[in-house]
Amino acid sequence: MAQQTKDSDLRVDSVRIGSSGKRTRQTDERKTFAAQLRSRIHLPQDSVTRGLLGMIVLTILAAMAGIWFYNRVHLFESYRIVQSTEEHDVEGTRYAMLEDSIIKYGHDGVFCVDTNNHSLWSIAYSMQTPICDTCGGTMVIAELQGKQVYVLNRSGLLGSFETAMNIRKAKVGSNGVTALLLDDGDTSWICLYDRNGSQIASVRATMEDSGYPIDLAITPNAKKMMVSVVRAEEGILTGSVFFYDFSSSASDRHLMQTLDYPNEIFPEVFYASGQTPVAVGSGGFVVFTGSKRPSQKTAVPLEREIVSCFHDTSNIGFVFHSDDTQIRYEMEVYSISGKKAMQASCTFDYTGVEMTDGEILLYDASHLYVYRSSGRQKLGAAYDKEVRYFAPLEGLRKYLVITQDSMDRIRIE
Question: Are residues 283 and 169 in the same domain?
Fold first, then answer.
């Protein structure tokens, strides 16, 4: 009886689903045939669903690839102002990015704002000619041919002090240690200070002994330093690069290496990626290797006169005057290994150039230009107001433009 009741229940259910016994048996036969077919060709039950999902994924990937390719090759010639705030900076104000904040500094103080132009902090001072340097999230502002030094980050002042001698160059490490090139008559001093002005180390330089220092650079941890020096020997100018290690407290062990280059001068030195020494000269650039006793790794000669030099963490670029009368400038970018990465021509003048994350930004008072690392131009647009500063922002095709009366966040399109 129990078995008969179960069969009866099954028959009733089949009638309810199929409406008739005949249609139900046809449906069962089709299901049986489909099951046999799947068993023969090994077709999974959700093959259609998987196929649709595959097509959707491929469509999304194709769209993403199209957007990527579009952003890599398209020349944008217009922009849209996403947000604009009033700007009331005095004439002569200079600008620099400090992580995701903007530093405005001038004769009477320094101000920090976010990208919406909201004030974060300010410090008042009086300097005739302020100069600055940044390393990661740390900045130093010093008085050229003066004695004031301010070390700061996005949160505000880290420390300030005054030197006994006039400042000619200032570089900062990410830890707030500052390297200063100081003048004392016929003698130059290269001194390391902590953020509060306590002297960590010093190096004395004279024309008779070592030459005249013209630039210096330190690593982010301020343990290594290199100094570019020029001196005259028997009527021949010789450029030298001195390498120092301050990880030891023994003062007689600071100097690690000296490399001389007759008939060459290096007006700029820096550490690429925070550790690779690079010296930029009038006839090219030199990359060094070796942490204990640096030596020349690569020397790249440049036969044309350098108009501008710029670099990021892994590339170095140059702007030259062009021999072609139809082209004003030519631009070349090299990897730190010395390999030429791109070359482009410019038909316009510019007042500012910098390289950030593989993009080269140029601008003048009324135009904005961006070049990709491939050499393709990304942006060429006239701006309606006088441009004072131009920098990239986080986000797709977003940039910051500071004019004489506004701070604009734009998206190129």
Answer: yes
